[in-house]
Amino acid sequence: MGELDEKKRRTLVAACHQVNRDFASIFSTLLPGAQAQLRPPPGQGVRVGFNGTWKESLSELSGGQRSLVALSLVLAMLLFKPAPLYILDEVDAALDLSHTQNIGIMLKEHFRHSQVL
Fold first, then answer.
1. Helix (H) or strand (E) holding 47
2. Angle at 111 between CA 109 and CA 114, to 5 degrees
3. How confident is the model at residue 2 (pLDDT cuts 50, 70, 90)?
4. In sequence order, which residues have a C-beta less than 8 Å from that of residue 102 and are 6 or more positions away?
5. Which of 10, 49, 50, 88 has the fewest other C-beta atoms within 10 Å?
6. How many C-beta atoms surround the C-beta of residue 103 within 10 A?
């Protein structure tokens, strides 16, 4: 039983590291010059940095920034087990044009082997 628990823990840690890497990469593509990272338990949070200043809470971010954090996290989790097709509906509804263009750039860069509608 201990062996199985250890294998589960290692698998979870590896998954968290991969999702965190993809999350940071996607977020920095969507918002050039910004950084983001997930904090594993017990922190259970997200840190977002702008020009070297880290925001420790999502409440410190604007609505558009929170939308980009959420989109980055969802897409990072989708990259962990990629699918051949994704259908995204109005993911850019709350964003201005520059961020909408960055979404297109990010999808081309990170989802080369998938079709996105």
1. strand 45-50
2. 145
3. confident
4. 29, 30, 31, 32
5. 10
6. 20
Predicted confidence (pLDDT) at residue 40 exceeds the cutoff of 70: no
Taking CA atoms, 109 is separated from 56, 90, 105, in Å, by: 28, 20, 6
Please give the distance of CA 107 from its chain centroid, rounded to a whole number.
Answer: 12
Residues in contact with 11: Cβ distance below 8 Å, sequence separation at least 6, in sequence order: none
Q: In the numeric block, which tokens belong to residue 24?
A: 């940071």
Q: In what order do the strands lie in the sheet with 45-50?
A: 34-39, 45-50, 53-55
What pLDDT score does 59 carry?
87
* Beta strand pairing call for 34-39 and 115-116: unpaired
- The helices-and-strands tally (H runs, E runs) of the chain is 3, 5
C-beta of residue 51 within 8 angstroms of C-beta of residue 79? no
Identity of the amino acid at 93: A
- How many CB atoms within 10 Å of residue 7? 10
Asked if residue 68 lies in contact with residue 35, where contact means CB atoms within 8 angstroms, the answer is no
Residue 58 has pLDDT above 80, yes or no: yes
